[in-house]
Amino acid sequence: MELFNLLCGPSDGKGFELSWHRDDIPASATEEEERERVWKPGEVYSHTQWNLPLYDDNSLVLVPGSHSRPRTAAEREADPHGGDLEGQVVVELKAGDLVFYDNNILHRGVYSGGKQRVTLHGSVGRADGGGEGMKKRARNVLQHGVGSWVERADFSCLGEGEERKTAEGMRRRLVEMGRAAGEVGYSLVG
Q1: Which residues constitute the signal peptide according to the record (predicted)?
Q2: Higher confidence at residue 133 or residue 97?
Q3: Domain count, the chain
Q4: Range of 19's domain?
Q5: CATH number where 67 lies
């Protein structure tokens, strides 16, 4: 496991919508840059994201198949907050359902102000992935400053058992990945 966080709905009762985006391809990317960074048939996945809601959740909206192609002209020209895109799907999850997806699928979050959202969100990656796959994983996982503090994470509260050994192994692999990848920059800005 690499990334793990909690997606929560607004507590003030006001909904909001995230813009259409891909997690590792900036909106400013050219068609050629997108073509280089999307998944290609036959390519081994280096990582995948997942959502597991604790309450029924329909906040994830995506365009199936868009993870393996550049955006269409209509998708490029659409208002990022303008609502629907052709072919979009609202992912309907019941509490306890689990969905895995490529984080470069064209997607957004739509948070309803009148609905409780508590969804576990994370990513898993291949520890044996090297080269360009490792750089993709590093950029996704270590951006947002994670690379600057993960080495200092203290797992002493876990005692001396297997849980601590597992946590320390995960931390060690993240640190090694960060050192091998170098400066990863940011995929999403704003």
Answers
A1: none
A2: 97
A3: 1
A4: 3-127
A5: 2.60.120.620
